[in-house]
Write a structure and sequence with these properties.
By secondary structure, the chain is mostly helical. Helix content is 64%, strand content 0%.
Length: 78
């Protein structure tokens, strides 16, 4: 699993667990719908840390908490 696939999967799972639509997440995180769609569909190869932090905050997570486990589940570290 690539890092962008991992991030997309994490966002989808958090949305499902919290009963939040992708559209509502975009609005709550103050990011554009197209940016979030690009991340969730795996098209964004390198989402900005600031964008991921905004998404994390909507779920009450720090960026570190959001990214916890990524090194085990993806090839981000090579």
């Amino acid at each position: 699993m690539t890092s962008n696939e991992w991030v997309a999967s994490k966002i989808k799972a958090l949305c499902q667990d919290n009963n939040i639509s992708i559209n509502k997440l975009a609005l709550s995180a103050c990011i554009t719908q197209s940016t979030l769609n690009s991340i969730v569909q795996g098209e964004s190869k390198n989402p900005k840390i600031s964008t991921l932090a905004k998404i994390s905050n909507v779920f009450g997570l720090t960026l570190s908490q959001f990214l916890e486990g990524i090194e085990r589940e993806s090839d981000i570290l090579g």
